[in-house]
Structures are given as C-alpha cells and as structure tokens.
Amino acid sequence: MVLTMASAQEDSLLLLLLPTTSPLPTLMAVFILAAVLLWLSPGGPAWALSRCRRPPPGPTGVVTALSSPVAHRTLAALSHAVDGGKALMAFSVGLTRLVVSSQPDTAREILASPAFGDRPIKDAARHLLFHHRASIGEAMVADVAAAMARHGEVPLKRVLHVASLNHVMATVFGKRYDMGSREGAVLDEMVAEGYDLLGTFNWADHLPLLKHLDPQGVRRRCNRLVQKVESFVGKIIMEHRTRRANGGVVGDECMGDFVDVLLGLEGEEKLSDEDMIAVLWVTTQIEFNFFFPV
C-alpha cells in the first residue's frame, strides 16, 4: 500500500515536470512577454514598433491625456517629469507615435520641418469636407450696446464669434447672415459642429480596428454634417449661378466673392459642384479659425 502511494506521487511529479504537448501556453507566454516589453518601452508601444532606433525620452505605456479637456497642461507636467522630456518627449496613443515639446526653440524647429507637413490626417478631417468690414463693425458695436442695456454686461466671445463668422461668410460667399434668423442659426450650428468634430479626440485615429466600428460616433456625425453642408453651400452656388446668368446683383450680395471666382474657372481648371462645395467649406473653416481661434 505504501509502495502504491509512493508510485502514484512519483507519477504525478513526472507529469508536472514533463513539457506539455500543446504549444498554446508557450505562445501565450511569448505574446504576454512581448506585450509587456512593448508597454514598458520608453515612449510606449507605438515607438517600440517603429524603425526609430533612438526615440526621444518618454513615458511607458499608452498616454490617454489627449482625451482630457486640459491635455496641454497634463502633457506639460508629464514632459517635465521625464528626464530630458522638456525639450522633446515621445509618447504613444494607441498605435500613433507622437511628440510634444515644452521649449519654443524645439517647437519652432518642428513646425519648420517638412515632416510636420506630412503628419497623419485626422479621420474627421477626411470626412468633412475682406469686405463689408464697416457694416460688420457697426453691427458688433450695436450688439455690445444692446447687451449692456439689457444685462449690464457683454458676452464678448459671442459678439466676436458672430462678427468673425459674418466677415468670413461675406468674403467667401458674399452674404451676411442674421444670427437670430433660422438660416443664421443653421450656419452657426454647422460651423460649431465642424470645429467640435475636428477637435474631438477620436481613438479611431490611433487604433485602426476602431475606424469601422466608430465607437465615439465621429464618422456618423461627420456624415450628417456633410449632408447639411452640401445642402447649404449648394443653395448658395445656385443663387450665384442665377445672379451671374441675369448679369446683376441679388439682394445685398456683392460681386467678386470666392464663389464667383470658382464659378469663373474654365477649361481644365473648372470644378464640379461637389469639389466647389468642399473647397468653399474648407476655406470657411480655415478663415474662421484664423480670425477667431476656438
């Protein structure tokens, strides 16, 4: 009986010592080890998977600070905590390699580099497609006076927002809008939605597998906005075509705006309506951001 029990214990020990015939545990161990090494690499997994032999110093793991409303402050504090990271710090967001600089000289060098112009495009950006100054200024002064009379204070950001938007619309479309009207409200909403989409931190930009899933709904919002933009800008293009065909001026519009320039293109340079809508809307977004950064 004693011999039987001893033999059973030896057989159990041998089973534990013998290698398993299935390669799955070994593969899992290798995968976990590789994942840990990538995670612990300076700058995170995206830099570890890159061809860069000597990346700038940076924290390990995936940085999620970009989803914070105060991302700039979080990244600045993180760069100061990393040895040598103040000048240039590398970090990973999903599979995207990013760098941040807290020194003006380094930032200036980055902005002047051709590599900066070749940086990856945001997914939202893929899907989104100087006259009347005196009257705009007068309207702004009137808005300030009216707000002071009613409330005793002025929401200056809103006043500047409306003035800048009207300036850009006059330059690009040759039209002015009453922000209190339905058409003005629709325009204001589209511009705000466009900037919100472009400024939203979207994980699909950094994890390719999420692009088709669209977990944050960025692509769906872009598609809805594009439909509104096509309808809004398409209507303006048709109004300009009608005016040009009649050889006159419609309402308070003026000749020589950007729509007229695009409609005047001929031959190989002539644009389709779809291309014109894209150019006009992108121009509106760029000019509005120049005059009134948000």
UniProtKB/TrEMBL annotation:
Which residues are listed as membrane-spanning?
A: 12-40
Q: What Gene3D superfamilies is this protein classified in?
A: Cytochrome P450
What is a single molecular function from GO for this protein?
A: iron ion binding
| UniProt KW keywords | Heme, Iron, Membrane, Metal-binding, Monooxygenase, Oxidoreductase, Transmembrane, Transmembrane helix
* Cross-referenced Pfam families: p450
Please give the cofactor(s) recorded in the UniProt entry for this protein: heme
UniProt entry tagged with the keyword Transmembrane:
yes
Q: Does the keyword Transport apply?
A: no
SUPFAM superfamilies found in the cross-reference section: Cytochrome P450
InterPro entries in UniProt: Cyt_P450, Cyt_P450_sf, Cytochrome_P450_78A
Q: Which domain of life is it from?
A: Eukaryota
Q: Which family does it belong to?
A: Belongs to the cytochrome P450 family.
The molecule here is called: Cytochrome P450 78A5
